[in-house]
């Protein structure tokens, strides 16, 4: 009962002031005993009425209107799952390296499947770029525009700082756009990237709607052109996952989407969240499901803590649970690793994930591998924290930490000017972790600010039999190992100026043949 009253302060205060009025009326009048009894009866009735109203409101709140009758009992938990990746052109993997559905194809398939609704949360909305290698982004944008005219409900969530013509154009065509002012809620940014299609299919991963995150293979036309490199343009290596026919997962993820939508036009976060936004599954109560016939468990987590209503796991706790469950190894792939949280005025040590890794290494003898991107924005302190992390294993048997830097810039540094004209700077933006029994795929790098300030969503999948070929965890491990053993991953701390004439340095892969095509009219690839 107390929960009901405190959650709805408006109702509570209106009710009590009415009651006070009655009481005052009763006391001030010099009425005989009988009418005093009547007064008490009326008072009791008013009380009952108030309680009834409160109960009805809370019941409506629990039921929720926007879940299409979807419930834990009738949702679909026999799902298909596929990894999606964007591998920028020019990345040279060995021939037998694992290869997955392209992000572009995965997204396009989702939009083609859509019959009722498309809900997208994205950190970026930069699809319609005039750059010749942006054609897949443009295709996606055209497809979204086309869907708005097909009576398909499109809901988009963006940070208020995204000043996007793409969003404005979609809004004009009837898409519902929610702008979140993350800087007002938590001094942060919206970094979440996930999709829900037809309340059935889900995408979640590192990539937002950005032409730089698309376009691994030029498929857009015939004409080959030479590029002029814009220094800010990079092609991104991305990783995500798509679930098909998985309304049980939607049931839960939809509530994070609803939480974002509930902040429309709000400049502050409400003190208490509606019950409708509580988590359905969490760390303790995981969703039981089948992923391509493999028995699995899953739940979604959220950040920042402010955005975690009851029964919604905080991202950090989700990551803790994955590391704690690991018995043999933990493989982590992130763009940035920096246990620091900084505001405009000061920087503080942020020990959460750094400490968890130390615990796993020293106290539980779990093997840890960290694959971090090395690029022009890499904070120099990263190397100090990595050295410190490595030092903890000194003279401890079975303590094993290996760190490699995924360096796609080196080849650019060593490329001749002519080669530079043909290739793009590239960056590995993967954000995942895989262990012997679980996978975590998220929107964040392992940097303090991301988890403490920004909005992001994570996904945990547990599988007991992770050695099975058809298991997503095995596939993710293979992806990690592909990158780990690739020539781009280097154990040594990379130097800012590579020695391009040294044979021990990475010889630039032969991307002399790499070409980008302009966007021709080629409906076959859609
Ligand atoms: C998309 O980009 C093209 C070419 O840059 C431009 O002509 C068109 O107006 C843009 N569309 C929108 C909706 O901004
Ligand atoms: C977002 O919130 C900040 C801080 O409250 C405010 O200064 C800013 O104007 C807001 N931005 C928009 C677009 O409303
Ligand atoms: C989803 O389920 C429907 C109906 O059961 C089926 O036709 C469709 O092929 C499934 N989609 C995928 C991607 O498995
Ligand atoms: C929330 O989680 C707690 C503990 O796991 C559980 O007892 C409770 O039933 C959950 N509440 C809802 C609404 O699922
Ligand atoms: C280290 O690992 C080996 C086998 O992997 C095992 O036999 C040994 O007991 C372990 N030592 C410690 C201190 O855990
Ligand atoms: C690079 O491309 C630009 C414009 O396409 C061209 O002017 C320049 O000569 C090229 N540079 C080299 C080294 O090929
Ligand atoms: C795994 O795949 C390989 C080849 O792709 C196959 O030879 C092997 O039998 C498969 N193992 C299982 C358990 O399916
Ligand atoms: C699951 O099945 C789909 C086809 O239905 C396939 O594309 C995907 O690769 C499979 N996923 C795994 C993890 O084997
Ligand atoms: C680069 O490597 C070459 C060959 O190993 C060596 O001769 C040269 O001195 C090195 N240059 C620098 C600046 O280290
Ligand atoms: C990739 O590298 C190998 C050797 O490192 C080379 O033989 C092969 O031609 C390269 N492939 C491409 C597409 O650059």
UniProtKB/TrEMBL annotation:
The keyword Membrane applies. One of its GO terms (molecular function) is catalytic activity. Pfam families: PLDc_3 (PF13918). Residues 186-213 form the PLD phosphodiesterase domain. The chain crosses the membrane at residues 39-60. Residues 493-526 are annotated as: Disordered. It comes from the Eukaryota. Residues 493-518 have a biased composition (Polar residues). InterPro entries: Diverse_PLD-related, PLDc_3, PLipase_D/transphosphatidylase. Keywords: Membrane, Transmembrane, Transmembrane helix. PROSITE patterns: PLD (PS50035). Signal peptide: none annotated. Belongs to the phospholipase D family. This is Inactive phospholipase D5. The lineage of its organism: Eukaryota, Metazoa, Chordata, Craniata, Vertebrata.
């Amino acid at each position: 009962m107390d929960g009901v009253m405190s959650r709805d302060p408006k109702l509570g205060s209106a009710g009590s002031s009415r009651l006070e009025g009655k009481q005052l009326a009763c006391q001030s009048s010099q009425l005989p005993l009988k009418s005093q009894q009547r007064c008490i009866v009326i008072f009791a009735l008013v009380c009952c009425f108030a309680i009834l109203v409160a109960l009805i409101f809370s019941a409506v709140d629990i039921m929720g209107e926007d879940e299409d009758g979807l419930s834990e009992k009738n949702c679909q938990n026999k799902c298909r799952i596929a990894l999606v990746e964007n591998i920028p052109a020019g990345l040279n993997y060995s021939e037998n390296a694992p290869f997955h559905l392209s992000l572009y194809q995965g997204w396009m398939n989702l939009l083609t499947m859509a019959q009722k609704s498309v809900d997208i949360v994205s950190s970026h909305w930069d699809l319609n770029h005039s750059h010749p290698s942006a054609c897949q982004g443009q295709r996606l944008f055209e497809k979204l525009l086309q869907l708005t005219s097909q009576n398909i409900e499109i809901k988009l969530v963006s940070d208020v700082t995204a000043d996007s013509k793409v969003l404005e154009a979609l809004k004009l065509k009837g898409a519902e756009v929610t702008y979140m002012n993350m800087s007002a809620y938590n001094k942060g940014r919206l970094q979440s990237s996930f999709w829900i299609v037809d309340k059935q299919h889900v995408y979640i991963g590192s990539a937002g709607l950005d032409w730089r995150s698309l376009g691994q293979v030029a498929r857009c036309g015939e004409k080959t052109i030479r590029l002029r490199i814009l220094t800010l343009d990079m092609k991104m290596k991305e990783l995500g996952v798509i679930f098909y026919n998985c309304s049980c997962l939607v049931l839960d993820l939809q509530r994070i989407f609803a939480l974002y939508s509930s902040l429309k036009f709000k400049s502050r976060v409400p003190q208490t969240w509606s019950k409708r936004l509580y988590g359905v599954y969490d760390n303790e109560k995981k969703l039981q499901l089948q992923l391509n016939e493999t028995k699995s468990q899953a739940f979604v987590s959220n950040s920042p803590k402010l955005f975690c209503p009851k029964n919604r796991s905080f991202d950090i706790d989700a990551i803790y649970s994955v590391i704690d469950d690991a018995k043999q190894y933990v493989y982590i792939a992130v763009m940035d690793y920096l246990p620091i949280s900084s505001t405009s005025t000061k920087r503080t040590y942020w020990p959460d994930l750094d400490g968890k890794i130390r615990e796993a290494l020293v106290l539980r003898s779990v093997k840890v591998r960290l694959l971090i991107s090395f690029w022009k924005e890499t904070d120099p302190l990263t190397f100090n924290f990595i050295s410190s992390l490595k030092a903890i294993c000194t003279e401890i048997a079975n303590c094993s930490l290996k760190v490699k830097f995924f360096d796609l810039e080196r080849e650019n540094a060593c490329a001749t000017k002519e080669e530079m004209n043909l290739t793009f700077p590239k960056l590995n933006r993967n954000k995942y972790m895989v262990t012997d029994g679980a996978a975590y795929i998220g929107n964040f790098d392992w940097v303090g600010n991301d988890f403490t300030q920004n909005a992001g969503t994570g996904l945990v999948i547990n599988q007991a039999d992770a050695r099975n070929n058809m298991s997503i965890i095995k596939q993710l491990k293979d992806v990690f190992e592909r990158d780990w053993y690739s020539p781009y991953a280097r154990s040594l701390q990379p130097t800012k100026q590579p020695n391009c004439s040294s044979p021990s340095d990475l010889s630039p892969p032969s991307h002399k043949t790499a070409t980008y095509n302009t966007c021709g009219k080629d409906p076959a690839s859609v």
